[in-house]
Amino acid sequence: MDNAIVATHDTHVEEHHVELPQLRHHFETEEQQREAGTFGMWLFLLTEIMFFGGLFFAYLLYRNWYNPAFVAASNQLSIPLGTVNTAVLISSGFFMALGVWAAEVRKKSLLVLFLILTNIAGLAFLGVKAVEYKEKWDKHHIPGAHFDITEFVNPPLNPKTGKPVEEPLSPDMAQKTQLFFVLYFAMTGMHALHMVIGIVLLFWLTYRANRGEFTEGYVAPIENFGLYWHFVDIVWIFLFPLLYLINRHPGT
Amino acid sequence: MSSQYHDPANVTNPEHSEHHIIGPGTYILVYVSLLILTGLTVAAAFVDLGILNPVLAVGIACVKGTVVILFFMHVFYQSKLIKLTVTAGFFTFLVLITMTLSDYMSRAWGLW
């Protein structure tokens, strides 16, 4: 029985080799090549999980050690901007997913359109991020020699109640807000770097997609880039609540 | 023995050869649910739940991440090899977090 299977499928494979120029000779079938590619991409993404995981762990530990500083510093971030950016990034991932679908059903102009939309949403995300970074720069909330703890030691008063808008911190705890901002810039900065790399790749993929390279049955580059882009989305899905929503004075 | 099988078309492992194309309908459903969950996580941050606030925030983020992995990243329709790879990665990550954190928490026990 086994020998019979060998005979049948060997001829089958030979036919495939002739039919599909994109199938590399060291793979037996197109499916095998496809799965090997997906497998390799996931191994790369696992190293990325470990890379961001170190940052997430540092965040977890320092948030537990210096919780009041993390609460006060987190409230400096803008929830509207963060929420809009989350929606923009999810939209970008949505367009990317549609792009993979367009490549699979071999619709070239749709694929190019979705890649461009993915790219536009990615660029919009970075634009909002730049606005947020600029505000931190203006308020001297970039960790380092020029970091300003005034706002955390003497929070501005709420005009209605006459009370401070934020729990005032002792000067040494107020210094620890720098740790929050170090992690904020390290994590969102690393995330933004991944997006910049992704956007550069997107321009290249859009150019190749426009030449019709991915709509003739060979979709691996689009698929694997999609995996990368969605991974970057997932990192942000965790960054948003952890950095922006630590303690928003519930009940007051 | 299995190395003697020459089975390029995956007759013994038919799941390898399936190529499932996910249509726009599924993606729209996932997209809308992700947006709803984003709204939910923002709304929940303004409700006083005590210790449950961060738990809920991370819980919602985990649900969103899982949905993205299963459908946007197609893992739901992939072979067992890919599913196992992804699960093993996240499991290893959780082991690293748990063991490092337990070290930090217990390092000073009995020293005071």
Primary descriptors:
heterodimer; A: 252 residues; mainly alpha; elongated; B: 112 residues; 3 helices; flat
Radius of gyration of chain A in whole Å, from Cα? 24 Å
Would you count the extended β strands of chain B for me?
0
Could you give the order of the helices and strands of chain A? HHHHHHHHH
Q: Mean pLDDT across all residues of chain A, rounded?
A: 88
What class would the helix/strand composition of chain B place it in?
Answer: mainly alpha
Q: End-to-end span of chain B in angstroms?
A: 60 Å
N-end to C-end Cα span of chain A: 75 Å
**Main pleated sheet of chain A:** none
Low-pLDDT residue intervals, each spanning 5 or more residues of chain A: 14-18
Number of strands of chain A: 0
Q: How much strand of chain B?
A: under 5%
Task: Give the overall shape of chain A, derived from the CA principal axes.
Answer: elongated
How many domains in all of chain B? 1
Describe the 3D structure.
- The complex is a heterodimer of chains A (252) and B (112).
- Chain A has nine helices and no strands.
- Chain A is mainly α and 252 residues long.
- In chain A, helix 4 runs antiparallel to helix 5.
- Chain A is elongated and about 70 Å long.
- Chain B is mainly α.
- Chain B has one domain.
- In chain B, 62% of the residues lie in helices and 0% in strands.
- Chain B contains three helices and no strands.
- Chain B is flat.
- In chain B, 21% of the residues are buried.
- Classes of the chains: A mainly alpha (252), B mainly alpha (112).
- At the A-B interface, helix 1, helix 2, helix 4 and helix 9 of A face helix 1, helix 2 and helix 3 of B.
Q: How would you summarize the topology of this molecule?
A:
The complex is a heterodimer of chains A (252) and B (112).
Chain A lengths: L1 H18 L10 H36 L1 H8 L4 H26 L3 H31 L11 H4 L17 H5 L1 H34 L9 H25 L8
Chain B lengths: L23 H22 L6 H21 L7 H27 L6
Overview in brief:
By secondary structure, chain A is mostly helical. Chain A contains 9 helices and no strands.
